[in-house]
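note to self: dont lose this again. the chain is below, predicted strucutre after it. 288 aa total, dont forget to put it in the shared folder this time
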Amino acid sequence: MKQPDQHQVILTLRIAAFFLFAGRAWQHLFWDAPFRALLWDQEIMEGCIVRITGGTWQAYVTSEKADHFIQWLTLGFGIFYSLMAVLTLFVTRRWKKVSWLYMVSSLSLAFLAFLYSKEKFYHVGQFFEYSIQFLLPLFFIFALTRKIKLSKLNLGMKIAIALTFTSHGLYAFGAYPQPGNFVDMVIHIFHCSESFAKTFLKVAGILDFVISVTIFIPRLARISLVYAAAWGGLTALARTWANFYIEFPIDSLHQNLFETAYRLPHMLVPVAVLLISFPAFVRIKKQV
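---
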């Protein structure tokens, strides 16, 4: 049996991690992140804020200083993700001392996933929809430094894929309320009716559930991973495609391209699993 090419796997994960960090950096530097979902939650934060500031909750939430703090916090994370994107392009196996930065970035991305989940009334599916993203920094650095064998990383990546696609499927199928932006994207791309869009999403959700299981079945894994890579890429591109307006090309790209960037790992991580599980299936000429 042909052995997987470690260099191809690392390159794929490197590209995936770069787009993840670059997309999140773009989001935090120019747009927003859901830190207010926690920092403006009176039930959770009031006691802590009153003890720290000595003032009232009302004074805190209406304070310009508090708002500026959240803006600087968002900017700080944006700078961190920018540095991680640059580091990811150049880091080598010998740079083992920077591994902790990837662990910190994984924790920060998991925290971001928690904040998105909190915005959606603590939907478990909303948190685990980001599994590929918040585990990717670990997959990359462990593959690069070879701290974990590819076979074990392969299993971890399959689990992350299954969690991400199952969680996405819960929304598409309607187990949670179908997000309006999902329906709008289908309508804008296919120029179809709302009822067709909702049915299309339900079918896509069922397929998400199916591949989350079949990627673990040897005879079905290859075709399931090909589908996962294709569907992950298409759903990433849909964020920009559905919201692109030729009258405002630069603004359209600025507002939406970062969402495509940080979702590209949903395509590239299944590709990495294909490279490990079926090295003869994906033939990429090794660069010397």
